[in-house]
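yo

u said u wanted the structure for the complex thing, so here. seqs first:
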Amino acid sequence: MATLNDLKISEVKLSEGEGGKWGMVIDQDICTGCQACVAACAMENNISFVGEEDSGYGRSMHWIRIERFWEGEYPEVKMTPNQPMLCQQCGSAPCEPVCPAFATVHSQAEKLNLQVYNRCVGTRYCANNCPYQVRSFNWRDYKRPEPLANQLNPDVTVRRRGVMEKCTFCIQRIHKAQDQAKAEGREVMDGEFTTACAQACPANAITFGRTDDPRSLVSQLAKRRGHGAKHLEELGTLPNVTYFKGG
Amino acid sequence: MIKRFFDWLKQPLGLIAVGIVFLALFSIAAYGLYTTQQSPEQPIQFPHKTHVAFGIQCLYCHPGASKGPSAGLPSQAKCWACHNQIQKTQTSALLAPLKDAVLSGQSIEWVPVAIVPDFVQFNHRAHIAAGKNCEDCHGDVSQMNIAENPQVMNMGWCLNCHVESAGEDQEKLVKLTDCGTCHY
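structre next:
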């Protein structure tokens, strides 16, 4: 009987994942770290403002954040390019198998990593198992002082206390574009819509689209700049976000 | 002290008291349940039955249903287009709120009865395009007076229809039973 040791490394299938459908390309060379994507994401997705105190406890809620790193010792400090970090929509997501309530599941139709708020019981296992640290938990029902409540996006659920949340690749925009295309009897065109972060980016560092379509802009960009990196790919998470650096 | 209280309860008078308390609690619960099943109070006692009997289509007052997510509730401008030509509008007490709303420019605050929770994203257009009729989900409104919701709109009810309409088409079934289709 063959044991695990008999298998060659190349034969070991690290993870049984899904092929991607929607994907993102982020060019770190042109990202200025202006945080426009962070603000746009918060506006689009009804993300709460946790305030100073809870933020101090590390409970700030962002679906996308700009990571900064430094190289070298003071005073010769060199800043590496800004790194926008968001849910990588893993094809084989570590957050999914640990959820006891099946609140984070893989969408078969859109190949996205979903968070079903009404199922979530707030165990926070998923956030602890996420190697990218991109999930945020609603520790409280954060107040939205008037008139901020008027800018809530009606297409997105307003989450309540005790629920985990994360980037959805603006699935509400995906559905809206699909609905519009269906009403007009055509397919969704590349570049017809994009995520809030990509739309807000003044440097066009973020590109969103279909990675399974070789003619789409994301696929073309990935092909033209062949040295794209996927974060923590060695964990077998099959991320759907590609980063470019040092072009 | 507690023992004396239980001894007192075992007497005929005590048993009657227990019975009365039980009946009171039961009727409060029953009344509470009953009130949740009632249609809400509307600003105008709008009779759907009468309007449908005149041959007015659902989409005339709720045109959003064929175009987008929300079917919409009509503004008084839509009511007034017909009602300002009807003599009864000026005299009827039931229609006084409409007349007031038009004269003062205040909007009529209709209360929606067919509602889904915030975590459900429903789109009318897709359902109309899939060949559903209004009465498939909203009941026979042509026989209703004040708007009511005869269905229990829960997820099982939605999914039954989704699975049924997908039939043998596996791709359609995946799309229609995907969590992300309605919850995001």
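Confidence is low (pLDDT under 50) at residues 7-15 of chain A. DSSP finds six helices and eleven strands in chain A.
cya
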